Amino acid sequence: MAPPPNPIRRSLIGLLVTVLGAGLATPLAAAPVPLPPLVQPASTEHHVGKVIWVDLVTPDLKAAERFYSGLFGWTFSEIHTRSTDYALATLEGRPVCGIIQHLARAGEQRQPGWLTFIGASDVEATRRQIVQLGGQVLFAPHAVPQRGQQAVFADPQGAVFAVLASSSGDPPDVLASPGEWIWSSLLAQDPGTDAAFYQSVFGYEVFDSSSDDGSEHLILSSEDYARASVNGLPPGHRHPHWLNFVRVLDTLQMTTTVTQLGGRVLVEPRIDRHGGRVAVVADPSGAPFGLLEWPDSQSKEDMQ
Amino acid sequence: MKRGFAMLLGIAAVTLLPACVAGGGGYYGGGGGVDVTYGADFYEPWGYEYGGWGPRYWVGPPRGGDHGHGRDYTGGHPPAYHPAAPSRSMPSIPSRQRSR
Q1: Can you give the residue range of the structural domain that contains A287?
Q2: What is the pTM of this model?
Q3: How far apart are CA B72 and CA B77, in angstroms?
Q4: Is the CB of A215 less than 8 angstroms away from the CB of B58?
Q5: Mean pLDDT in consecutive groups of 10 residues from the start of chain A, 304 residues
Q6: Does some domain include residue A302?
Q7: I need a labelling partner for A304 at 20 to 30 A (CA). Which of A11, A150, B17, B52 fits?
Q8: CB < 8 Å to A142, chain B
């Protein structure tokens, strides 16, 4: 006759089996997305304070690919893991941005958007400073294989941005080609205090370029390059946010293409301070971005 | 029976050790998926409102070279940021062409 089962041993075995199952499952669920390096071949070039990357978070990866390839000629290489659908966009072989599919839960209203990554040398030190200055950590510093260290924050006025210390170097300071990101603007409740926040974090020089009608327009610069503008929220806007612009040759024609591809025009083409036309549009999922003309010529008059 | 139990314990240790390392201090796991490992999420609040951009609401980059240091704060509240020195001319975006 077999001896009666030892209840302690049975409990221990049960516990081990549970833990073993969890141990096997965790690496699968948490498998990091194998993102390609930001710069290939890798360089030692770093530009703290420069917008070095953008990622779109969207509920429909395929729809986004159709829209952006039709608009800018981007080509996509997809990366799929067990729980992730990601597409790397390239233009003439150069990485332009990433698109990640994220399904909203049923009944959940969420805003698809472009996440702006600003270059930093030490993400953890940047986190400490951001928190000290009243910013919020939305996603703590963590390593992304081949990409580097990154984290997501909200500034004290609520605009969301990410910080990235790229392990392969930062993209060089060259003029963006048509179809590449060329500029970023922060639309803030109080541009002056927000500029002070970003100046403390990234060491920007701040230039006041406000217009005669009182619209506040500050320029953040580093390494003697303009990196972004900070603008007051226009009347009716409630949410401070970053807005990124793609360089185009013809804003008017591109807004027509946007609507043909299922997007919307949010701000009609208009001449901006630099003399070229800008417009704000949204992709079919509603993610807003800007279009900006910037001719190669140095003459402002040539643009008008 | 004791041998089997020891083997099970050994397998558990080997399996769990890399999981703990991959956990990177707790950033992985917990959320159970890519949102936790990569950090991409719908961070923005719902709905953007556009419009209301006045004719001189400028968002674009400067052409560079201006000494536009904006308003005169003499006698008023100084800005929260440290303005660039008046001797500094406003920079533009990079103009160097990409080498082919």
Answers
A1: 249-304
A2: 0.82
A3: 10
A4: yes
A5: 56 50 43 79 94 95 98 95 88 94 79 95 98 96 92 96 96 96 96 97 94 83 97 86 97 98 96 93 95 74 44
A6: yes
A7: B52
A8: 24, 27, 37, 39
